[in-house]
Amino acid sequence: MTYGETALRHGALVYESQDEYVALTVPFLREGLEAGEGAVVAHTKPGLADMREALGPDAADVTFVDVGSTYTRPARTLAAYHELWVEQLKENPSLRAVADVQFGSDPSDWLLWAGYEAVVNRSFAHLPLWVLCTYNASGAPDLVLDGVWRTHPEVVVDGTWSESDRYDDPDRTLRALTPEPEPLSGLRSIGFGRDPAEFRVRLAHELVVEGKTQAKALDLLVAATEVANNAIEHGGGVKDVRVGRADGRFVCEIVDRGEGFDDPAAGYLAPRPGVGRGLWIARQLTWRIEFFRAQDGFTARLWL
Fold first, then answer.
1. Of 111, 130, 140, 256, whose CB is crowded by the most CB atoms within 10 A?
2. Interatomic CA distance for residues 287 and 74, integer angstroms
3. Domains of the chain by range and CATH?
């Protein structure tokens, strides 16, 4: 089965028990190994132990990844998996992976991870990769399960692969899950200066005043520089820079002079020919980035 103009296959399995999970994923991986494909299992430590035992001698040909600290923010999770896929594909013509999704216990994060699953369809579309995302139904809220069917083109039901009749366009799904940015009244202008170097000096001063650690300050300086360079190259230059605090976080807004863009996946797409690294890097180094058109210009809002 194939879908769209993509090398990626992205499927989902919702399992009721660990026995069911093992019974359905082990044959999937073994079929790939027999065909000369690489194989990856991403799970918590207990899940990895179960899979090693079930795979027996075949476990020697499988890469096992502990996801205990992987599911932090979507951009960082995408980057971690992309690095893994690229490394594996250096040694294998194609790859099968079983990845257990850790959606967490905070309801405010559930839509975030549904958006992550939607963007996977675009971010890894260029890779010869077949990913089976697995979800433990025990305790999984309806909101999470609804997202599974909407963000995976293929699903495993009763052990059989089929097309999801609820799958939706990734961009449309991502837009629906991403709230419109609200105006922030507590920010003040620090200007851009003559060039990116002066901009960094101004922003660094604000971060020192805020008491940010050197590591956190460096993250934002690198991210903001990437965004500013993007504004210079594609947005007609930087018109203004505003900083301040909102919802307990430091915020930096970079306003450019251009028309902007309308791509909900901007910065989530893994680099490849035609897709640059700047916004991809910036998303990984910040807590959140929002892109939107405002009255005074196209704005990138970076949260630290």
1. 256
2. 10
3. 9-177 (3.40.50.300), 188-303 (3.30.565.10)
